[in-house]
Amino acid sequence: MFEKLVAIEPVSLIPSAEEELHRYAKQVVLYRDVPASDDEMVRRIGDADAVLLSYTSRMGKEVIAQCPNIRYIGMCCSLYSEESANVDIAYARTRGIQVLGIRDYGDRGVVEYVLHELTGLLHGFGMSMLRDEPVEITGLKVGIVGLGVSGRMIADALQFMGAEISYFARSAKPDAEAAGMTFKPLPQLLADSEVVFTCLNKNVLLLGENEFAQLGVGKVLFNTSIGPGFDSAALEKWLNLPGTRFFCDTRAAAGPVAENFFARENVRCANVSAGRTKQAFVLLSKKVLDNLRTALGE
Q1: pLDDT single digits (tens) 136-160
Q2: Which residues form the D-isomer specific 2-hydroxyacid dehydrogenase NAD-binding domain (predicted)?
Q3: CATH of domain 2-103+278-295
Q4: Fewest 10 Å CB contacts: which of 53, 152, 246, 263?
């Protein structure tokens, strides 16, 4: 059992999970707002030996070094790699601190968002149609950039609806090939696809000016990643081409864009995270508690 567990900011646990935290620490402190500075983060942590945080704060070396009691840091958000994490995991390791994160808890909501927006675009439901007349997903040439869990779920859903799926990943995926999906080099995928989805880990940027030139006119780009999977200036330039469309669920997914970017007629942003659903919070809570038990050796 930990001596003191502090959630330095809102971490999206359901009420029953918040109550269960008391099984794993003698004292539990939950903050309901995001710390405004590193100094405030250090103050909140104090003498705690376990810390929880979400994606809204970064716990770097400067913070960790001032909190000598920390034994465990629980990330209540996606952890794909050390490089993309909002915790300095490498430094934490030198201090003997265990860092655990979660992943794959909000993917179903993302797939539903994609189906909703893509169907609206193809049929003209609540927005201008992509073509001169309504078209189905059947036969649509779809390119998936990044075939991780969410990318594969999007690919499976659209393939079920009749789309022709090609994908780009670090290497060809035998299970995807067996399912009838085709691996293509990125330039070919961009040139061949009518609709492209970037489903990348945080801080992975694959599309620059050259790639947007290969994507070309009359194309649609969805970004379902946490952050931009592209150079934002190159995205804005591409959107000046005729017939181009860009979709994202949150503003963060567009990256550092011009002030009037979201007022463009060919940009559609829901401004709400598609993966943050009731079911996702239940799954997130379960995984956070599982990680606490792992950290305690239970």
Answers
A1: 999 999 999 999 999 999 999 999 9
A2: 134-240
A3: 3.40.50.720
A4: 263
